[in-house]
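Your task
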Amino acid sequence: SRLCQNENHQVRMAGLRVLGKLGRSAAEYAGVVEALCQDECARVRVHAAHTLGRLGEEASSKALLALLKDDDPDVRAEAVLALAELGGASGTHLAAVIALVYDGDSSVRKSAIDALSRHEDVTAIAKAVAGCHEDEDTDVRLAAAELLSNLTASGAVPNEAVSKFLSDDHGDVRKAVLRSIRGTGETCTEHVQAIADLFEDPDHEVRQAAIEALGESGEVAKDYEDELQDRLRDDHASVRIAAARVLRSLGLATSENADAVDHLLRWDGLEEAIERNWNETRLAHMENIERLVRESALFALLDTGTASTAHAEALVVRLREPYWLVRRDSLLVMSMLGTAGILQAASLVPLLRDEDPCVREAAVHALTIFGSRDQKVADLVADAAESKVPRMRDTATRALEGIRAATADKSESEVVEKKKKK
């Protein structure tokens, strides 16, 4: 507390940070912190507001309410969040918090919306936030849409507000609203045409979310069978899969589209398997969703051990994929192919200098297996070990050591077998 009274504002802020970390155990110093809410330095006032929220003393609400009118937007933004921490975004203080939803600073508006998310009066909140669809700041509109998404099921959100957010310029806002009205019955039905219109959205994630929302709108979704059929030919696999799911769930998988639906849902199962087992392939890490389908196929071959000579040439093509995980798994599958893999071994050598260490490791693994069976492969690896490229030379040397060790083990086991026969 002595630090908080130091003449140097940096020291005062340091004292506030310490008290903030102590949390409720330092609640007895709330009075000291409240005094700093009137500090001449705005940064000190910001820290004071934050610290009061951490201390948890409801009596500090009065000091925080005063900060909601501070000239500095950072102070106002921190004060409204701290007030919510104390439960002060409720009761008699609600009007003051709602007023900041229309503050002149976007960071304050967003903080006010975040504070309102902790309030129980859904009707008042929905009414206050509904008008945010006109906000010029995307982050504010997104925060409002996400807050409304938590309230839609209550029926408190005006239909007009939902319509406005569905036509927002930003895809993340449209997605947030689509997620909010999934499975809401009457609310979803009310906007079914607007949802169907988003099947043509330029953002494939919005198209997918729109299809999923329509699928949970009940029998009325069947009126959009043709639009769903069209999405089976969408440019993105995730949209096609979503359309297939909805068509199947609605009983609209007819003889004309049954094959396409079944095919997509098989890939869907593979997608789910890859999600469970390889976090690296999550859609957020993909530049192109089609890569997930290719990676899913490779995963299936690895998982089931069903790779055969028929896959060899296709796997060689996959070795040139820009995405590292596809290259790596192609190598792992090839190492399972036996003679068919050995015939393609020359295609593996360049990957000894791949930019990704996991790919280089997989190349070493595959060539070690092939080289211990075939001298020509061993010679290829030996040549690579003489490369002027350090990365190629180092990984090839490791592969060559593995080949020699595997060959020695094989020779030793053959000698043992011969002795047993004698």
